Amino acid sequence: MLQARSRKKNTPADIPAPDARTGSAVRLTQVTKRYGDGASAAVALDGVSIGIQSATFTAVMGPSGSGKSTFLQCAAGLDRPTSGTVQLGGQDLAELSENKLTEYRRTRIGFVFQAFNLLPSLTVEQNITLPLRLAGAAAESASVDSVAAGVGLFGLLRRRPTELSGGQQQRVAIARALITRPEVVFADEPTGALDPDTAQDILHLLRQAVTDLHQTVVMVTHDPVAAQHTDRVIFLDAGRVVHRVDRPSADQVKRVMTELRGAR
Ligand SMILES: Nc1ncnc2c1ncn2[C@@H]1O[C@H](COP(=O)(O)OP(=O)(O)OP(=O)(O)O)[C@@H](O)[C@H]1O
Asked: Using DSSP, how many helices (H) and how many strands (E) does the chain show?
């Protein structure tokens, strides 16, 4: 069970608190992302406006090329939209310089990727605490132990990533994403490289982070079974939000995906 604990004071003082007015952890307003110019331009996001409520688990789905990765990249401040605004924790990301945006991502946003993206030369403990150390904040051993125990890694802190299973490596990535108590954790196909049973364990962990720690989690996935762990599925097609399903079942999600693929 993940343990709730107070938000650490490791964030820059000039960054505002979550968007109390809307309750949104992330808000995209008329976000368009265009790659290239002229006849060869690709519109990956086409006027997307959506708010993602704090302390919810959201899946982003859609056919191949519908704009899911671009959505995640723009919402997480990894890429800048061509037009429109992204607010995260009440901060308009366009107002941040590149350096401030990097600092913001490090302290206020957590990332979990399909390929785990751990540093092989660091121990599990060092991987988990890396975002704190990069931000110049001390890692309290009690909080590291609590996060590690919460994701089922207790006793493995001295190991290196190569000495862990895929599921254990993804637990390290989740602990690393949670250690700063970010505004939002963005997960890009977090179960894509795992067997079905291990994938279920990882999805339960992400669910617990929302339920027990009131984290906001946004996950891109192709998997209807993964989506049924979430509170809401947002469906993209041709760069637009075309459908939403709350408290989704895998069958509902499959139906919508079949319709979207059939409509192409
Ligand atoms: N760097 C880029 N340069 C040019 N076009 C791009 C670039 N990145 C994405 N695109 C285009 O933007 C559209 C959306 O791509 P995106 O990767 O966001 O879709 P996706 O839904 O994540 O796809 P998939 O499920 O196949 O990963 C596609 O038409 C893609 O070809």
From this structure: 8, 10
Atom from ligand 1 closest to the CA of residue 71: 18
Kindly state the tokens that stand for 239: 């760069």
Q: Is 62 in the pocket of ligand 1 (CB under 6 A)?
A: yes
Q: Does residue 12 sit within a domain?
A: no
Contacts of 116 (CB under 8 A, 6+ apart): 161, 166, 169, 170, 172, 173, 193
Q: What is the pLDDT of residues 11-31, one digit of tens each?
A: 333 333 444 445 799 999 999
Asked whether residue 100 is domain-assigned, the answer is: yes
Report the number of distinct structural domains present in the chain. 1
Distance 8 CA to ligand 1 centre (A): 36
Domain extent for 221: 24-262
Asked if residue 2 belongs to a domain, the reply is no
Measured at the CA of 6, the angle between CA 101 and CA 153, to 5 degrees, comes to 85
DSSP assignment of 166-206, as one string? HHHHHHHHHHHHHTT--SEEEEESTTTTS-HHHHHHHHHHH
Rounded Cα distance between 186 and 113, Å, is 8
Is the CB of 68 inside a 6 Å radius of any atom of ligand 1?
A: yes
Is residue 5, in this structure, part of any structural domain at all? no
ipTM metric? 0.98
Q: How confident is the model at residue 38 (pLDDT cuts 50, 70, 90)?
A: confident
